[in-house]
């Protein structure tokens, strides 16, 4: 591995944190009813 492959500082986030952020946004949008519902999954 090259020395450039390590993240520098807090400006860069790992893929794990990016996934957590995307999931949190989707959960928040679903909680506020912004996302459309899937009729056959809702009872």
TrEMBL record:
Keyword Membrane applies: yes
Keywords assigned by UniProt, alphabetized: Membrane, Transmembrane, Transmembrane helix
Residue spans crossing the bilayer: 20-42
Protein's name according to its UniProt entry: ABC transporter permease
Lineage: Bacteria, Bacillati, Actinomycetota, Actinomycetes, Pseudonocardiales
